[in-house]
């Protein structure tokens, strides 16, 4: 049995990601993230990764984990002089708390899915491949609940909670 957990497509960047789980609810569950790009009037698989499925996580507001990426293989064909000129396609799994209504991935606004989990995809220059866009969790009323910067390991809500403790 295969379950698609989440799909994200950034049409402007021509990139997409699919988060799938094989044998969900089984102790042997495995997940796979496939990265795609739009090239030559069709979607092409350019990479991804597999591993044991994560255990469910209760998230207060925002959790971003298990990022990955790949070099745009098909666009590197257009740029034969330097492989580093082709874009990097990056992704991360995002988990959201119950009060989150939307999430911003860079400038893109995505409605929070009912299962509170989504995959986020973006492109960047190869030289910036380790940098993810700013990720912001917004409440249903549009108020910012938490933010995670490109190099941050914890979101602002978690930092505030830790300071109080």
Lay out the secondary structure.
Blueprint: E1 2-10, E2 15-22, E3 30-39, E4 42-52, E5 62-71, H1 73-76, E6 87-96, E7 100-105, E8 108-111, E9 117-125, E10 135-139, E11 144-148, H2 156-164
Antiparallel strand pairs: 1-2, 2-3, 3-4, 5-6, 6-9, 7-8, 7-10, 10-11
What would you say about this model in short?
The protein is mostly beta strands. Helices cover 8% and strands 53% of the residues. The strands form three sheets. It has a four-stranded antiparallel β-sheet. Strands 8-7-10-11 form a four-stranded antiparallel β-sheet.
What structural class do helix, strand and pairing data support?
A: mainly beta
Element string (H = helix, E = strand): EEEEEHEEEEEEH
| β-strand number | 11
As a percent range, the share of helical residues equals: under 10%
| Low-pLDDT residue intervals, each spanning 5 or more residues | none
Overall spatial form: globular
Query: Widest sheet: strand order?
Result: 1-2-3-4
Taking all residues together, what is the mean pLDDT? Answer: 89
Count of alpha and pi helical runs: 2
Describe it for me?
The chain is built from two helices and eleven strands; from the N terminus they run E-E-E-E-E-H-E-E-E-E-E-E-H. The protein has helices at 73-76, 156-164, and strands at residues 2-10, 15-22, 30-39, 42-52, 62-71, 87-96, 100-105, 108-111, 117-125, 135-139, 144-148. Strands 1-2-3-4 form a four-stranded antiparallel beta sheet. Strands 8-7-10-11 form a four-stranded antiparallel beta sheet. A hairpin with a 4-residue loop joins strand 10 and strand 11. It is globular and about 55 Å long. The protein starts with a strand and ends with a helix. The mean pLDDT is 89.
């Amino acid at each position: 049995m295969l379950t698609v957990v989440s799909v994200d497509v950034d049409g402007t960047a021509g990139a997409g990601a699919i988060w799938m789980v094989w044998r969900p609810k089984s102790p042997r569950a495995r997940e796979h993230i496939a990265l795609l790009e739009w090239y030559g009037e069709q979607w092409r698989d350019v990479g991804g990764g597999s591993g044991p499925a994560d255990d469910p996580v209760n998230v207060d507001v925002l959790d971003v984990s298990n990022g990955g990426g790949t070099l745009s293989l098909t666009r590197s064909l257009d740029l034969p002089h330097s492989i580093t000129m082709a874009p990097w396609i990056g992704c991360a799994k995002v988990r959201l708390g119950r009060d989150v209504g939307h999430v911003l991935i860079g400038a893109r606004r995505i409605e929070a899915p009912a299962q509170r989990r989504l995959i986020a995809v973006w492109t960047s220059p190869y030289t910036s491949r380790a940098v993810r866009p700013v990720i912001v969790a917004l409440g249903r009323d549009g108020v910012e609940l938490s933010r995670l910067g490109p190099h941050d390991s914890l979101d602002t809500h978690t930092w505030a909670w830790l300071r109080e403790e």
